[in-house]
Amino acid sequence: MDEKNAVDYEMKLHVAKSIRMLDYVGLLDMNGHVSLRVPGEETFLINSRKASRASVTVGHIVRCDLDGRLVAGEDEPPSEVHIHAAIYQARSDVSSVVHSHPHWQTVLGIAGIDVKPVFGIGAFVDHIETYELSSLINTPEMGAEIAQLLKESFAVHLRHHGSVVVGDNVESAFARSVFMEENAKKQYFASLLDANHWVLEGENLERTRRTTWSPSIVQKVWTYYEEKAGRVGALDQVATS
Fold first, then answer.
1. What is the per-residue pLDDT across 136-183, written as a single tens digit (0 to 9) for each?
2. Could you tell me the residue range of the domain that residue 212 belongs to?
3. How many domains does the chain contain in total?
4. How far is 103 from 128, CA to CA, in rounded Å?
5. How many other CB atoms are there within 10 angstroms of residue 120's CB atom?
6. By C-alpha distance, which of 38, 82, 27, 34 is closest to 56?
7. Four-point Cα dihedral 63, 84, 165, 113, nearest 10
8. Are 172 and 220 in contact (CB under 8 A)?
9. What's 148's domain CATH number?
10. How many helices (H) and strands (E) does the chain have?
11. Does residue 99 lie within any of the structural domains?
12. Are 166 and 97 in contact (CB under 8 A)?
């Protein structure tokens, strides 16, 4: 395998592992997707539409252009590929996009409760815009609406549906997805005990954000979940091309 193909393989492996790990923690089901921008190209990698999220492998990762059209791979991309394409067109700083179906964020959204920062590593949570159409985001126009709502932020909530999270690499998009959901879970249970529950704010919030979110912590999160998923066989044969 030459150097270019080796790099391509490693990027696909990263995407496939992220999907398996998100499935393992319950953020993906039979649907949902992870993508990764290919450096130096107007393309991105994403899991194919038919691939099971529980058994996706390197061989199920396809390549699309920034209009969401398939340019390499044996299967078509997911119908919601337009989410990814539109965000990559609008945000040059974004290198990875996760669309998942988180339970606790969706519950809060159905109740009309905004997600607030309520615990340490979830302190990065800020005001998140909400997209009100609950159907599949399966047109370029809807993808563009998501990108417009996202602006310079890191997430959009899809009412009755799920979320879209972005990062500067697969690891950061994965970590944000995991801890946005954990933050929402803690907020939900706190709200049952007291509607006026404590929320991180002010100087305490800013310090907490500075000390609990960094590239080294993101990598620590990724390594932890990678090892945990590997121990129970959730990553078996993921490297199959």
1. 999 999 999 999 999 999 999 999 999 999 999 999 999 999 999 999
2. 3-231
3. 1
4. 16
5. 14
6. 34
7. -150
8. no
9. 3.40.225.10
10. 7, 8
11. yes
12. yes
